[in-house]
Structure formats: structure tokens, C-alpha cells
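ingest -> validate -> predict -> emit
validate: passed (alphabet ok, no gaps, 266 aa)
predict: started
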Amino acid sequence: MVLPADYHMHTPLCRHASGEPTEYAATALERGLSEIGFSDHSPMAEDDFDEWRMRLDQLDAYVEKVHRARRDHPELAIKLALEVDFIPGHEDWIRDLAGRHPWDYFIGSVHYLTNGWDIDNPNKLARWRERDPWEVWSAYAERLTEAAASGLFDIIGHADLAKKFAIYPDRDPLPLFRRFLEVAARSGVAIELNTAGLRKDCREIYPSRAILAVARELAVPITFGSDAHAPHEVGADFAAAVELARGVGYSTCLRFARRERQVVSL
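emit:
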């Protein structure tokens, strides 16, 4: 099987990953990938916003790490990108980041429902127990929809991240995500099949098969990402992700260069 590009990978600069980009690239070649992309957590305007992203003064060092991986592995296509949190009120900051380097794509992700609660943070799991899961999932899907409508991103990351800890609402959340996908389709933004969910409590690729089937119905394009935080996770479970995509009817995915898309066969 020819594997798609792995467009979601991190570096030690985010403070919760290990291994240098050149090591990730070497693993990608060993596993038969022809293209990868680094999309580490972007800095915020305030370095103390949280403890799981690079500082602003490390942004150039991040770019240089990716360039080094390119020099070390010229036979591999290596893209330069960021995973950027969508938080209302931070849109100008995202536009500022977009102008700092020749990025290949931006992944827009929703981690925060409030400035103090990143819903996928295991250190804040107790907050889930204080809230109605339907309320949390609804707020999450609404912010995801705003991210898709913003025009700031090329890809929306791990679109049902709310399931990470396997805390589910008492009713079907699919209608919440249909609205998000309708907006994504109109905006021309892709969603990723993120295999990290298989390594979390939910034990399921992001997004679920049901959400992905609606995405296919609405012709929302897709990319693939391992969300690797260590070299051994590069391309993890990509065969399963491709099988899932094909199973709901996808025959193509996207690749990016300088924020321009190319449709390629699966």
C-alpha cells in the first residue's frame, strides 16, 4: 500500500514530545512514506499561555529544525506547518503567524473551550466531571464550526477530540458535527484522519466513521496525520486510516505546498 503524507507531527519544542525532526524523517523513510509535514503547536502572543507549546522566540529555531531534516533527507518531501489553536479573539495573532514564514499549511485545532480549560488535558480531567457531556460536546462543535468558517486554516485537526477520554453525551452528537462539516465544505477546508485517537482512551481514529461518512457525503476533503510525539509514532496505523477512508467512499486526499492544495489518489 502506498501511504499518504503524514501531516501532523510534533517536536520537542512543544515540551511534550521527544526526538528531533530529522529522526522523524528517518522513520518516515523506513516506513515507506514519501511526504511528511511538521505541524508543532504554534506559539501564542504570551509565552505563559500554557505549558505545551513552543515560545515565540523559538519559532525560528523550529523552522531551522525542519530545514535540517530536509537537508538530511533530500529524498523525502518535508513540509513546514503549524498546528494553531482557534480561540475567538486571537484571529489577528494567527494572521501574524501566517506571515512570518513560508508555511505549507495550517492545521486549525480546538483544544480550549475557555482560556483555562484545554479539554484534552489529562491534568484537567476533573473538569469533565463538573459539566454535562452534551454541553461540552456542543460547545466544542460550535467552536470547531467557527474555526472552519474563519478562513484561517487549510485543515481542521482531530475533529472529534472531545471523545479523547471516552466521555460521551447521552444523545447522538452527529448533528452537531454535520453543521461543522457543512461549513467546512462551504469554506473549502479539509479535515484530517488523525490516528492518535487509537492510542487514547477512546481507541478510535479522529473523527469517527459516522462523522467521516457525512464528510464524504458533503465532499469535504481529507488529509492524514499520526499526531506523532515521538519518532516511532510516525505513520502509525495509517493502513487502518486509509481503509477507513476508502470504506466511506474516499478515493482522494490532499497534499499542500505553500498553502496551495493538490488532489492526489488514495
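The mean pLDDT is 97.
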